[in-house]
Amino acid sequence: MSGVRTTLLFLSLLVGLVGSGEARQAKTLAEITSTGSVTACADPDNLPFTSSDAQWPGYDVEVIRAVAAELGARAEFKWIGTRSARAAMRNLLEGECDLFPGLPVAPGFTEEYPQLAFSRAYYTMRHVVVVGTGRPLTGLADLRGLVTAVEALSAGDLFLLQRGYPRRSYRTQEAAFRAVQSGETPAALLWAPLAGWFLTRSSAVHLRLVPVSDPDLAVAFGVAFLKRDPALKHALDRAIERLEARGAIEGSLRRYGVPVGRAGARPGPSIEPARWVAAGNPLVTPVAEVRSVPPDFEEGRTIFQENCAECHRSDGRGGGSVPRLQQYPFGAEKRFIETVLNGRNSVGMPPWGGLLTEAQVRSVLAYVRVLVPTLDIPAGATPAAQARLIFGQICVTCHGREGAGTRLAPSLQAFRGTDEEFVEAVLDGRPGTAMAPFKSLVSVEMAQQIRQYVRDLGRLN
Ligand code: HEC
Ligand code: HEC
After folding, report:
1. Does 430 contact ligand 2 (Cβ within 6 A)?
2. pLDDT at residue 135, rounded to an integer
3. Which of 54, 161, 173, 307 has its CA 20 to 30 A from that of 406?
4. Domains and CATH numbers, the chain
C-alpha cells in the first residue's frame, strides 16, 4: 500500500505547511541589492543543468550567477534534490530561496503555481536526433524507417508513438544515448542539452546531433520567484537581456556541449516537422466487459505517478483542462479504461494502448480509487474540527459518508473493538490491505479525536 503512503506523505507536508506560518520571506529587489546577496535553489547533482561542483557548476548555475552579478549581488545556493518536483518547489514557495533557475515557462507549469512569477525565458530546450555521422537524415520522416531509442514516456517517446514510428524505450535519456553509441539502435531522439552533454563526455566521434525544430518538442526555461515585487521581474528580465546581448548565456550553454545556433549566423541546419501520414487508427483497443485479473495497486501507483501525474497531478486532482480523477465514479470503469487506452488525442489526453495493457489500466484505476482528496485544513481549526475535516477528506473515500462502509472498506460505525484498537488501526494500518498507516498524518490524540467523531456520527442516526 505504499501508493497510499506516498500520497499521505505529501498530504502531511501540506498539513505542516498550514500550521507553520513562520516561513522565511523571499527577498525583494531592494533587499537583494542592499544585502548584496540572493539565494537560488539548485540540485547539487543534475548536470548539465546544475551541480555543486566548483569546476562544472552547470549552465543554469552559471546563468544565475551572472544574473545576480547584474543585480549587484552574489548568488548563494541552497542545494536541494529535485527528484520530487513538488518537494523541490516547496523550497521556493516557502521562501527558502529567492530564485529558482531552469523552470519551464510553459502554461501547464505556470498555471500550477499561481503564486509564482517567471522571468523571460533565457533558453529554449529542444530535441536532437543522435545518429551516426555516415547516416543521411533529411527530415524526421526518415525516422519512420529506423528504430529510434527514446527514454520511456519522455516527450520524444510520446511524439514518435503518436506518429506510429518504430522506437525502443530505455529507462533514461543516458541509456538511450548509450544504445545509439554502441550501435544497438541507429538513432535516438533526446533532449538537446542532455545529448550534447553525453556526447561531450563520451569518446563517440562517430555520432552527430541533428537539431529538431518541432515546437511540440520544445520547452522554454526561465527563473521562477514568488510574486512579491514587480520590480524584481523587471530587473531580472533586463539582466537576462543584457547577458543575451553579450552572448554570455550562449557561452555557458556551449561549455556544456549544448547545441546552439552560431551567434549572428542563421540557425544551424535543423529538421522541419514532417507532414505525418495518418496511420489509420491502430491504437484503438476494444475493451472486454468482464475481467477477472485482480488489480495490482503497486503497479498502478508506479504507472500513475510516472505517466499520468504530470498532467493529472500526483494526487489526481487535475487542474485546468485536465479532469480530476480523485473519487472516480463507480460504474464508469469502462469509460476510464477506454479513455486511457484510446486517448482523446485531439484534446491532450494521449493514447496508452501501445504502452499499457488493459490489466495495467485496471491497476491504475484501482490506485486512483484510493487517492485521497486533497487535504484542506484552515489554520486555527479546533482539534474536533480537524478530525471532522480529516475524516471528510480522507477516510470518507473508503469508509463512506457517515463512516457507514463502502465496497472498499468496512463500516466504522459497526466497529466493536476498543478505542485503543481503533487508534492502533488508524496509526499502524492493516498490512496487506488498503488500510494504510496514518502515523505520518495524525497523532495519537488526533486518532482519538477521529474515534470520537465516528462515535458521534453513529449517535446521530
Ligand atoms: C499530457 C497530459 C495527460 C497525460 C500524460 C494523461 N492525461 Fe488523462 N487526460 C488529459 C486530458 C487533457 C483529459 C481530458 C480529455 C477531454 O477533455 O476529453 C484527460 C482525460 C482522462 C480521463 C477521462 C476522465 C473522464 O472524464 O472520464 C481519464 C480516465 C484519464 N485521463 C486517465 C489518465 C491516465 C490513467 C493517464 C496515465 C496512464 C493519463 N490520463 C495521462 C491529459 C493527460
Ligand atoms: C484507501 C482506503 C482506506 C482509507 C482512505 C481509510 N481506510 Fe480504514 N480501512 C480500510 C480497509 C480496507 C479496512 C479493513 C482492513 C482489514 O481488512 O483489516 C480498514 C479498516 C479500518 C479500521 C478497522 C476497522 C475494523 O473493523 O477492524 C479503522 C478503525 C479504520 N479503518 C479507520 C480509518 C480512518 C480513521 C481513516 C481516515 C484517517 C481510514 N480508515 C482511511 C480502508 C481505508
Report:
1. yes
2. 85
3. 307
4. 21-122+219-255 (3.40.190.10), 127-217 (3.40.190.10), 297-370 (1.10.760.10), 383-460 (1.10.760.10)
